[in-house]
Structures are given as C-alpha cells and as structure tokens.
Write a structure and sequence with these properties.
This protein is α/β, with parallel strands linked by helices and about 375 residues long. It has 2 domains: about 90 residues, Urease, subunit C, domain 1 (Roll), CATH 2.30.40.10; about 290 residues, TIM Barrel, CATH 3.20.20. The protein has 13 helices and 18 strands. It has an 8-stranded parallel β-sheet, with helices on both faces. The chain has a 6-stranded mixed β-sheet with strand order 3-2-7-16-17-18. Strand 17 and strand 18 form a beta hairpin. The two termini are about 20 Å apart.
Length: about 375
C-alpha cells in the first residue's frame, strides 16, 4: 500500500502524446490523468514525467559482482545494492540483468558471478531492499562446449524473462573484423604475439564448428518449451537472420549491419540497439549506427547495455537530432520494451498501469533524472 498523491505542472509523456497532468496515483497504480488533483500534490515545475524505463539488456551487474577478470566481489548483497542504486538512479524501474552463460575466453569468474547474482537476487526480491524490479536475461554463448550444463540450473526460474543466443567466436558476427577483436582484447596474453593470437583464433573456430549448432538448437527448444522470449544477437548477414527466424526469435539484438537490420525488420523482428551507440554517435566495435536504424524507421527498442544513464539520454537524442516525436522516442525505452517482453502492467502513463514513473529535468539538451517511483513508492 502506498500513499495517494497527484503530480501537477508536468509535461506527461504518454504512449502517443504529451499532455498536461495532473496524474493521480493510488495504491501503486495510475488512477487517472486529468481532472481534480486533490489535496496531496507534487509540483513538477514544468519537468517531464516519463513512465519508468524498462531495460532488457544491461551488462552493468557484472561490473559489480566481477569487477575484474579474476575477481568476484566477496559481499554479494553489497554488489547488488550498488548496481541497483545505479539502475534506479538512471530512471530504470524494471531491469533484465543480462548475464553471460558460457564464455569464449575461459573466464571462470563469470560463472561464479552468475551463481552469486542469481542467488542473492532471488533472496533480495522477497525484501524491500531493491529499488528497481530485477529479472534476468540469459546470454547463452553458443561457442562454449559446456553451455547446456551451465544454463540448466537457471533456465526454469520464473525471473528469467529473456534469452539471447550469442556467438563471440573471432571472425563471426560482432568480431568478423579480427583486428577489431584483437584491439578490444589487448589485455589478454594471447593477443600480444601473432603466433599466440593465431593459435587462439584457430582453436576457438574449431570449437565453435563442433558445438555452436547443437547448442543453438537446444537453447531454442528450451525457450519454446518454457515460453521464454528468444532474441538473436549481433546478426550480420542474411543467413544469421534466417537462422534466428528458424529458431523462433522475435527480437534482433544489436544487428551489426544495415543489411541484417533491414531484413530482420522486414521479417517482423523487433530491432534492439544500444543507447550508448546513440549517445556516442557510433558503435564501440565499429558496427552500424543506431541513429541510422532510427532514421530508416527500423529501431524499436533501446538498451543501455554497459551504461545505464544512457537510456533516457538516447531517447531525447532521437527526439532532438532525428526529429522523432518525444512519445515515439520514449516508447523505445518503455512501452515498446514492455510489449516485446509481455509486460502488460507497466511501461506507460495510463490509468490502471503500475505507477512506475520518472521525473526528468533538462540541463541544456541533456535529460537528468531527479526522482523515481516504483508502484507509487519513491525509490530515488
């Protein structure tokens, strides 16, 4: 139970328009827009009121649980709280923590971080510790020969809402440019000398050729059986898109080329792009620009990926630079995401929906999160 109140003097971003409140909140839900504000009001002084942002792929949690390649933070609850504070402070009220299952670099710390995160998050969800609503996105690395054994303990859990099939084999998808791959991994011993680098590439390709196909098929089968949304990842060629369609994917996450994005869009897949790509004006790995996707009307959903604060910022950039109407831009970080994941109780400022809300002020052209509510309770 939460207190009843109304928000006044706000620019309210709904699914399809910008309206002047008031917005009334009762018992954790939106009770109405417009009409009498009542006695208990909060004056927004002209700030924006957005629906709570929904994040379906953030790697941010791994930074807190495994801050270095060989380090797992000893106090899992502290790591989770630190991550949660950053998420809520960025205006995100629902987050799917994207955890890598399997690896292409042999990092054991990553699996230990996965175990620790799952356990502590399940425990914390039964308390009032967390500000945001946390769930999971399992990123299944098809090139890991141990993938199926690694994913089995987690797959049937109800807080797993999304699965993506990844393949980070050098020479494939995101890493089709081997020099980009080597540049990104300069901290690894095998990336220094040519002979070590070439041996690593050859070994990874050999393993991928043996296990990726069977792994992909089994993961797709498990998602279909459990009713879990399935996404492809780093589609680069028409063949990748066709493979995903055959596997039953409904989302194309971070397509690397315009060719792949156009085909995926034409086939009805929802296109996900990185918010940091929008804010930075380009891809970290030298892939296609999210702004180009948006300019062609192909961008459906934004993800903050490795930088939570980028989510709101990217939505406003789409409005400012490309001229998208603000509700259309905000939909890419809220209701579009909710629709894709089957969340029918959140994602927009609408009567009957959860009162997950974000107050945003503008510092010049940059949106700044000032206040956040989840189910009508102030969390930031």
């Amino acid at each position: 139970m939460t207190a009843s109140f109304s928000i006044t003097n706000a620019k309210v971003i709904t699914r399809d328009s910008v309206v002047d409140g008031p917005v009334r909140v009762e018992d954790g839900c939106i009770a109405g827009i417009g009409g009498d504000a009542g006695d208990t009001t909060l004056d927004f002084e002209g700030d924006y009121l957005l629906p709570g942002l929904i994040e379906l792929h953030t790697d941010n949690v791994e930074k807190h649980f495994a801050p270095r390649a060989t380090v797992v933070w000893p106090e899992a609850i502290a790591a989770l709280a630190s991550h949660d504070n950053q998420i809520a402070g960025s205006g995100i009220t629902t987050v799917l923590n994207a955890l890598g299952v399997g690896d292409y670099k042999g990092r054991k710390a990553r699996y230990h971080a996965l175990q620790a995160t799952f356990q502590i998050l399940k425990e914390a969800k039964h308390t009032k510790l967390l500000r945001a609503d946390h769930m999971f996105h399992l990123r299944c690395e098809a090139s890991d020969p141990n993938l199926l054994d690694l994913v089995a303990p987690f797959f049937d859990d109800t807080i797993v809402r999304l699965v993506s099939i990844t393949d980070h084999t050098p020479g494939e998808r995101q890493w089709r440019d081997l020099e980009k791959f080597r540049e990104y991994h300069t901290g690894f011993e095998w990336a220094v000398r040519d002979e070590d680098f070439n041996a690593f590439i050859e070994k990874r390709r050999e393993i991928q050729g043996e296990v990726a196909g069977p792994n992909r098929s089994k993961i797709a089968e498990m998602c279909k059986r459990q009713g879990v949304v399935l996404a492809s990842h780093d589609d680069t060629t028409p063949e990748h898109v066709a493979m995903g369609l055959e596997e039953g994917v409904t989302l194309s996450e971070f397509p690397c080329t315009m060719e792949a994005a156009r085909l995926a869009h034409k086939q009805g897949l929802k296109i996900i792009a990185g918010a940091p790509n929008v804010v930075r004006g380009g891809s970290l790995a030298g892939n296609a620009s999210a702004l180009d996707y948006a300019a062609e009307g192909m961008l459906d959903i934004l993800s903050s990926d490795y930088m939570p604060v980028s989510l709101a910022h990217a939505a406003f950039i789409l409005h400012q630079k490309l001229g998208l109407k603000l509700p259309e831009a905000v939909a890419k970080v809220s209701c579009n995401t909710a629709d894709a994941l089957g969340f029918d109780d959140r994602g927009e400022i609408l009567e009957g929906k959860r009162a997950d809300m974000v107050r945003i002020s503008m510092a010049g052209d940059v949106p700044v999160v000032r206040q956040v509510w989840r189910q009508g309770r102030r969390v930031n």
